[in-house]
Amino acid sequence: MPRPVLRTPLCDLFGIEYPVILAGMGPVAGGIQGPTATAELAAAVSNAGGLGVLGGAGYGPNQLRAEINKIRSMTNKPFGVDLLLPSNFMGGAASGEMPKDPRELIPAGTYAAVRKMAEDLGIDWKTAPEEPMPARPRRAGGGMSDDQMEVVIEEKVPVFAAGLGSPGPFMDRLKANGTKVISLVGNVKNAKRVAAVGVDVVVAQGTEAGGHTGRVATMALVPQVVDAVKPTMVVAAGGIADGRGLVAALALGAVGVWCGTAFLVANEANQPPIQTQRILAATDEDTRITKLYSGKTMRNITNPLIEAWDASGIQALPMGLQGLLITDLVYSLRKAGREDLLMNAAGQISGLLSRTRPAAEILQDMVAEAADIIANRLPPAVKAGA
Ligand SMILES: Cc1cc2nc3c(=O)[nH]c(=O)nc-3n(C[C@H](O)[C@H](O)[C@H](O)COP(=O)(O)O)c2cc1C
To answer: Which protein residues touch ligand 1 with a CB less than 6 Å away?
Structure first.
């Protein structure tokens, strides 16, 4: 079969064949190290004609550099690196007043409530062994994201994606390197903010999305962001996993799509088999937004622990501290073999997915279906035009 043709201005901007981007997805919590969107997955998507983006958020600077080099050894096509830039991971702000042990910032009552919640579900509570000081928030005048950004800048990666927060403080150096910059947003206000600092592409991510997500649905968000940031290019995210979603995104004024959940069931994705199976088994109603795992609203395949947390009314702590709060919980779940209660970020489109396959096939099918819809399958009234 000849390769389908589907080009938009996004293809020219990045030098890619198809307007499909692999979302730079970080780690899930099943005991497997590294992000879901690994170097292997990113390279596979780039080699297939899309833009592969590494989920770099969980890597320390040295490992991040090694993974960037790994992608370069697996493809000569453009690729991207995604990091999270929330303000409390960055220099200044909260980090200046850090106590020696950040665990002191966790209210004892909150810790006890989490413990009780787990024990009520029959989990035997255990205390995680002492680990080296957590990476974030960590020192005055600098933070995890600053250190990671130095690597992104030194490595002159083709594309940088800010998954949370604004890349504003780094724009001059990124632009000087020729790096194209993507920024993810979930509402019009933040879209305007990142467009104003000169990002090349705004990803408008609807609430359907897996992982950290906002409150506005993709269908409503994309056209509003398109109008608000014109002429900046907009890419749609949240709930897109096939050619129908891709065409819909283009109809809403986007120049491409940023897909996470669709590629979570790729053979090259890195997550424990039980989590892939839960996505494949999920229906459209089986995800839920919770602050349990990170302190920020995150869409997951739901489970009894998420439901207990939401029912408990416990106030989540800020990102970073919430991770510390649940360190013993995660350790206890692992020891109890309850991987089904760990973080399993995925979007509402999970219900559409029924099998694992190579990333290249997922991408090719999506593009071929979209090209076919545009050429042959739109209703006659749409084709007739004015
Ligand atoms: C397991 C998982 C991990 C994610 N981690 C990140 C991340 O580290 N950085 C980021 O920018 N977005 C992350 N996201 C959100 C994706 O970038 C993307 O916006 C979302 O998956 C798009 O919606 P979809 O899942 O419906 O395709 C994650 C999503 C999932 C499902």
So the answer is: 23-26, 28, 36, 55, 57, 82, 84, 163, 184, 205, 208-211, 237-240, 258-262, 264, 345-347, 349
